[in-house]
Structure formats: C-alpha cells, structure tokens
Amino acid sequence: MTLRECYLQFGGDYDGVFGRLRKEQLVEKFLLKFVDDKSFFMFGEAMARQDYEEGLRAVHTLKGVCQNLSFTALYESSSQITAAMKEQDYSKALSMAPQMAEDYQRIIRAVEEYRQSLKG
Description:
By secondary structure, the protein is mainly α. Helix content is 83%, strand content 0%. It is built from 7 helices and no strands. It starts with a helix and ends with a helix.
C-alpha cells in the first residue's frame, strides 16, 4: 500500500498534506504518529466526566491535527463537535460523537494496514 492509497482508503486529502509538508517522509512520519495521539480518547473521557472545558480542548486539538494532516472526514466531524461545544450544546456534541468515532476508526484501520505493508 502506498501512502496515497492509505489516504484514499480513509478519504483524506493526500495532495493537500503533501503540499503542506512537501516530503513524503514527513507525511508518513506524522501519519504514523497519529495513532499515538490521545486527543480522541481525552474527548470521550472528558465528556463522560462532564468536564466540558477539557472536552472542548481535546476535540479542538483533534480538529487541528486533522486539519494539518488533511484528514478530511475526521476534520469535518471534529469541527462540528467543536462548534457545538463552543455553543455549550453538549447534547448535540454527544449526538455527533458516533460519526467522529467512525471517522477516527477508519483512519486508524488504514494507518495500521499501511504500517503492516511497510513490514511486508
């Protein structure tokens, strides 16, 4: 699997991230590091505790990472949740969380498949 194919698999914008980072090695480095990013989990944990300030911080961080890495679908879903959190509409944010989780898992699966192809 190529890096471009990985991005295609989860609906990311490879040309966008490549245009920003300009080296495939950098794209690969940050793509592989994304698996270790805790923002997604921090959001879920904060919302479970009803710590909405921490939830907003976590989802906003996730949104920024997704924007930088051109993770289109996850950027969109995390942006919508960020907006709801800023409006203090926490039930709306929670109602959108399943879509964000689906978008997140799609990326994780593709990145893991890509990582396995490197060992190949």
